[in-house]
Design brief:
The complex is a heterodimer of chains A (296) and B (365). Chain A contains 13 helices and no strands. Chain A has 296 residues and is mainly α. Chain A folds into 2 domains: 2-39; 78-291, MetI-like fold (Orthogonal Bundle). The two termini of chain A are 32 Å apart. Chain B has helices at 42-50, 92-102, 107-120, 136-148, 166-183, 194-200, 218-223, 228-233, 267-275; strands at 4-13, 16-26, 31-35, 57-62, 65-66, 77-80, 154-158, 187-191, 203-208, 211-216, 240-249, 252-256, 262-264, 280-285, 290-293, 301-310, 315-321, 324-330, 341-346, 352-355. In chain B, the strands form 4 sheets. A 6-stranded mixed beta sheet of chain B has the order 6-7-8-3-9-10, with helices on both faces. A 5-stranded antiparallel beta sheet of chain B has the order 13-12-11-14-20. A 5-stranded antiparallel beta sheet of chain B has the order 15-19-16-17-18, with no helix packed on it. In chain B, strand 7 (154-158), helix 5 (166-183) and strand 8 (187-191) form a beta-alpha-beta unit. The chains are: A mainly alpha (296), B alpha+beta (365). Chain A binds chain B through residues 185, 187-188, 190-199, 201, 206, 209-210, and chain B through 50-52, 71-73, 75, 77-79, 81-83, 85, 87-89, 98-99, 102-103, 146, 150, 156.
Chain lengths: 296, 365
């Protein structure tokens, strides 16, 4: 022990000098990334509490002279037309995103389980075919999907969006969850079946609770994807009362000249559900993404 | 408790035969070990009994019932897995209660049985813990508890000790043996460790390549291995197997080595060789049945010591004979050095003779 304590200080200083350069570089990079991601949001928040006039000033007011919550009041007031529209868009987005999330979990969980546990003809082919959609940019499918939706009479319905978002979110959801199921020892299910459970009970009672982090991550991923999507919502929906938030906000504010504080307040409120959801569940999300990276 | 019968059991995966025509009868209350190297089909056989895989052909009886088409849950079995397969999200109490809950027992009866099992296995103070908060030995014990809480017809154990460290393994070995004696339970125990099989089982079924090689008591398997595989698999260090050529000289049978030496056989051994269809015979001898001499005596075969391994109470000497490694155990107060000239004397009563083509043991009559 005595030899260790004698040599440690010297060893430590030598090491510290070597790491410092990298560490400061790393810190600088982190600060840059923080500003890069946070500044637009801070600016969004600041603008949203300015008056319409203050928002247009140049040079800009870095800090609003007279902070006001007028824009928020206007947007959340069901009495005036702006508020009515905003709340309706918000509601539409919530419905579409929630439906997408629920359906994608309902489809992805058994699909991932099947890919993980069963061998069946075409298993590998199907598993990679699931990814096929993700190999092309989303816009490529815009026109074909629009024609398809028109043919089956889904244009101008939320159903068209839910179906489309499902095809976007499912591949990753299935891959993510399969990783989870691969990591749950098959002996757990076997033990449950011997202990008196049916195959389905073994899945529901033993495997499902263990894959909860994966299911939560899948749900967040689907929800965020659907919540933020713009181009398909813009193409498939034309009736004002059906618009989702991204399209709604854009269309709404270009019609009412450009009310920047209102636009920013709406954008801020739009990001609230996603941020809250993510903050609440982010530890599951991280766990899901790193699942299988190391052996437990 | 119940007896178990496997009849002409076959399991194929595509063209690969994992289990080949295995027939076994396990008596009520008997402890049978399925033993063999990895990939020999022992775990597949156990999974067939458990119902975790379905047989390609053949029948499985538990008690008087054919269970081929029954779900695992309906076979009245309990299983202990190599990785214990404890439900990680459940406490020890809930792990033990799960099989009872699945059978819809009343709550107070579940509680009584769980506490009884915990008392027997001396883990009452662990009931509220999660499996990850337990040591390997404790996890193993919970796995055992989950099996015995239900009082099943048959216990299946799949290498339950192989994840434990050496010391704990020896301790748990005697605990499981004791558990078998107390419960008079029918146990099918899979292991790759022949020592576990020999020490614990009433009878051991040695498997290799999907085939059942020999099924008998450990003493019988040790004393009369049916073929060269069993001879080399059971016992440690392994039985030495020396390839030789049989010939007739002076009215008796003699085994000759390509190295020039020969070994005259006793009348009984000569009879065995005479009945063989081949002249190529393999001589088998366990380390303890070979005598090592430091000077030439009549009937002893000259060899050179290759390595010397003292273990404390016995020293193992290895030598080459006819290209095969021969293990000899000697008393530690005999000093042998590598490359020293030694003479080996075989005990005619205790050597084994095998047909080198069929690999089967040669029989006298």
């Amino acid at each position: 022990m005595s030899t260790v304590s004698e040599t440690t200080p010297r060893g430590r200083t030598a090491r510290r000098v070597r790491i410092d350069g990298w560490r400061w570089g790393g810190r600088a990079f982190l600060v840059f990334m923080l500003l890069y991601t946070a500044l637009p949001m801070i600016w969004m928040l600041l603008t949203s509490i300015k008056s319409g006039f203050a928002a247009m000033q140049f040079p800009p007011q870095w800090w609003p002279d007279q902070p006001t919550l007028d824009s928020y009041q206007k947007l959340l007031d069901p009495q005036n037309s702006v508020g009515q529209d905003f709340l309706r868009f918000f509601w539409n987005s919530l419905i579409v995103s929630t439906a997408t999330t629920i359906l994608s979990v309902i489809v992805a969980v058994p699909a991932a389980y099947a890919f993980s546990r069963f061998t069946f003809p075409g298993r590998n082919f199907l598993f990679f075919a699931v990814l096929l959609r993700n190999m092309f940019p989303a816009v490529i499918f815009l026109v074909p999907l629009f024609i398809l939706m028109r043919a089956i009479g889904l244009v101008n319905t939320h159903g068209s969006l839910v179906l489309t978002y499902l095809t976007f979110g499912l591949p990753l959801a299935i891959w993510l969850l399969k990783g989870f199921y691969d990591n749950i020892p098959v002996q757990l299910e076997q033990a449950a079946r011997i202990d008196g459970a049916t195959r389905f009970q073994a899945f529901v009672l033993i495997v499902m609770p263990l894959s909860a982090p994966g299911i939560i991550a899948t749900a967040i991923y689907s929800f965020i994807g659907a919540w933020n999507e713009y181009i398909y919502a813009y193409t498939f929906l034309s009736k004002n009362e059906q618009l989702t938030l991204p399209v709604g906000i854009q269309r709404f504010f270009s019609e009412n000249t450009t009310d920047f504080p209102g636009l920013m307040a709406a954008s801020f409120m739009m990001s609230v559900p996603v941020v809250v959801l993510f903050l609440l569940l982010q530890r599951y999300f991280v766990r899901a993404l790193t699942e299988g990276a190391v052996k437990h | 408790m119940a007896h178990v019968v496997l009849k002409d059991l076959v399991k194929t995966y595509g063209s690969f035969k994992a289990v080949n025509d295995v027939s076994l009868t396990i008596n009520d209350g008997e402890f049978v070990a399925l033993v063999g190297p990895s990939g020999c089909g022992k775990t597949t056989t156990l999974n067939l009994v458990a119902g975790l895989t379905s047989a390609t052909s053949g029948d499985i009886f538990i008690g008087e019932r054919v269970v081929n088409d029954l779900d695992p849950k309906d076979r009245d079995i309990a299983m202990v897995f190599q990785n214990y397969a404890l439900y990680p999200q459940k406490s020890v109490y809930m792990n033990l209660a799960f099989p009872l809950q699945m059978r819809k027992l009343p709550k107070d009866e579940i509680d009584r049985k769980v506490r009884e099992a915990a008392r027997v296995l001396d883990m009452t103070q662990l009931l509220e813990r999660k499996p990850r908060e337990l040591s390997g030995g404790q996890q193993q014990r919970v796995a055992l508890g989950r099996a015995l809480v239900r009082d099943p017809a048959v216990f299946l154990m799949d290498e339950p000790l192989s994840n434990l460290d050496a010391k704990l393994r020896v301790q748990m070995r005697s605990e499981i043996k004791r558990f078998h004696q107390d419960l008079k339970a029918t146990i099918i125990y899979v292991t790759h460790d022949q020592l576990e099989a020999v020490t614990m089982a009433d009878r051991m079924a040695v498997m290799n390549g999907g085939y059942l090689q020999q099924y008998d008591s450990p003493a019988q398997v040790f004393a009369h291995p049916a073929n060269m595989f069993v001879a080399s698999f059971v016992g440690s260090p392994a039985m030495s197997l020396i390839p030789l050529e049989a010939s007739t000289a002076n009215g008796g049978e003699v085994l000759t080595s390509a190295e020039g030496w020969s070994l005259a056989l006793s009348p009984r051994n000569a009879q065995k060789v005479a009945r063989a269809t081949t002249r190529k015979v393999v001589l088998g001898a366990r380390h303890s049945t070979i005598k090592l001499h430091k000077s030439a005596i009549a009937g002893a075969i000259p060899a050179k010591a290759y390595t010397v391994e003292p273990t404390g109470d016995v020293t193992f000497v290895q030598a080459f004979l006819s290209g095969a490694i021969v293990n000899i155990s000697v008393s530690p107060n005999i000093t042998v050095v590598p490359d020293e000239q030694i003479w080996l004397e075989f005990d005619q009563e205790r050597i084994h003779l095998f047909d080198s083509e069929t690999q089967m043991a040669l029989e006298a009559n």
